[in-house]
Amino acid sequence: MFRKTVIIAVMVLLGFRLGAEETRLVMSAPNAVAVGDQFRLTFNINQRGENLTLPDLSSFDVLMGPSFSSSTSIQYINGKSSQSQDFAYTYILRAKETGSFTIRPGSIEVDGKIYQSNALTIQVVSGQAQGSTAQGGQAQTDTPSGSGEAEASSATISKSDLFIRLELSRRQAWKGQQIIATVKLYANPNLPLAGFEEVNLPTYEGFYTQDIEIPQQINFKREVYNDKIYQVGILKKTVLFPQQTGTLTIRPFSITTQVQQRVRQRSFFDDFFTGVQTVRAKLTSDAVTVSVKELPPAPAGFSGGVGEFRISPELDLNEVTTNDAVTLKLHITGNGNIRLIQTPQLNLPGDFEQYDPTVTDNVRASDAGVTGTKTIEYLFQPKYEGTFKIPPMTFSWFNPQSGQYERQSTPEYELKVTRGSGDAGTSTVRQLRKQDVQSLGQDIRYISQKQERLHPRGSSWFGSTYFWSVYLLGATAFAVFFVVYRKKMEENANIALVRNKKASRLARRHLKVAAGHLRQNQDEAFHDALLKAIWGYLSDKLGIPLANLRRETATEGLEAAKAAPELIDKLLAITDQCEYARFAPAAGNKAMHELYDRAAEVITTLEKQIKKQ
User: 13 pLDDT band (50/70/90 cuts)?
Assistant: First the structure.
């Protein structure tokens, strides 16, 4: 029994040891405080240490410390145990003067080894009143009905105590250069928020947008703005790609918040009892402008890329038969407007049957912008045997950091093609040529002794009515085939016409993807797919590049195509609802079903109307 206990104890200790984390010392404190404020400076370490060495804290008053605390947690995952420990050393400091102060790393000794913490920067502003006394514009407030016995302690909430603003990473940009847009809510630390009622976040007209994923729960952090400390929450982050030049204006947006305010009851006990009531405050932002510069004259091979990119080609086969399909993959990797990059043209000789390329985007939006890879698969099939050269492709892009175009080319590939085993056409041609050579080698032909049947003149099939009927029918069929084939070739040469004809089919494909997300109740993916179906359909049907497509150009194109005004309004209303749903709380499945049905109906009706014109 004792032996078993020892073995179990050793195994547990080994499990803890194996699950031990790397030793790290972390220093934390508020990033903004006011003069006279007291705050905590804490050192956390995941191993027991000794001889904690403090950095220089002469810019602050050290009121108390260190106070020591520890905690231990044990986890069992898949039969394995792990232990995590946390040891905390806390000091109470007080800010003495305004300014930005950097606290250098502290250090501690663990098992004879010295570990250093991170550094911190704390911004100290002048002391601010605890109430809402700052001057500024007013936020519109409204007391909820049913509170006749209560009145707010102040009729309005100062704009400097509660407001929203749009923060841009840059106000000047090149066309297509990414801009990080952050919607922030600023609140006085002494103003408790109870929630939101109505959220109307900005619409970015003239920009292509991609949302940055943020936590659904708003995390408020301290920030200094205009020398005041606020609790700041991020409501939305979006990457913007300007698609127009000149001065673009992002219109004001608004949200309605619920704020708790102290009230005094109208009774005999006014001097003794107070309470709180929730009031509504509608906040409206200011308009924001962005100055967008046109790109310099583009070189050959420019596909619309703005950012920093590199390409890597990949040919799957170097030796094939005439029955094989060959795939050339082009990977475009980098940071920038990857989704808007147009497919580079692969110019193959006429000895190949070439198919439409397949494009796959694998991108992610973050605070660094949009990064990822666009993979383009070119599929083609050699018709004849021989050795062929696959010409290089040149990919050019604009680098906004240097203000210049950059380029990179793929290598020239050599493809060896042999005759496939099932290629009957090639073998037949070769056999005919062999027979021709044999016939030319006969300079004396023998006299046939076989009795031939004689036919009266005029009874020959050649020149008969039946012969001419078959001849005319064949000639007519050939002429019809030639006209249809020529028309088809002209249509294929007209890329805009091809896209126009395929618009409805591609839209149905995107709608099918949206339906899949709908069945799985994937809210954001559903609305993204629905938007892609609508904007992709309009781009193909109207012949407008996706990069230049926006509400105004779409409306003009649809009006030129004689689409009904009410149908245009319905279509734009659906896009607005999709955009709103991407940042609003998750919609119910029924609402998503209705939105899907409306989108499918509008696209179908629009297709019929445009076809009649």
Answer: very low
The residues with which 380 forms a beta bridge, in sequence order, are 326, 354
Same CATH topology for 12-125 and 302-418: the answer is yes
Of residues 155, 70, 20, 50, the one with CA closest to residue 110: 50
Q: DSSP string spanning 514-537?
A: HHHHHHTT-HHHHHHHHHHHHHHH
Sign of torsion over alpha carbons 439, 443, 446, 451: positive
Paired strand residues for 511: none
Model confidence pLDDT, tens digit, residues 142-170? 544 333 333 333 446 778 889 999 999 99
Q: Looking at the structure, give the CATH architecture of the domain made up of residues 302-418.
A: Sandwich (2.60)
Give the architecture-level CATH label for domain 12-125.
Answer: Sandwich (2.60)
Domain boundaries, the chain: 12-125, 138-293, 302-418, 495-612
Topology of domain 495-612 in CATH is Four Helix Bundle (Hemerythrin (Met), subunit A) (1.20.120)
- More confident position, 38 or 434: 38
Distances, alpha carbon 4 to alpha carbons 8, 11, 115, in Å: 6, 11, 38
Q: Are 185 and 282 contacting, i.e. CB atoms less than 8 angstroms apart?
A: no
pLDDT of 356 strictly over 70: yes
Distance CA(382)–CA(416), nearest Å, equals 10
More confident residue, 401 or 518: 401
Backbone CA torsion sign across 239, 242, 243, 248: positive
Closest CA to 329 of 378, 384, 374, 291: 378
- Residue 490: predicted pLDDT: 57
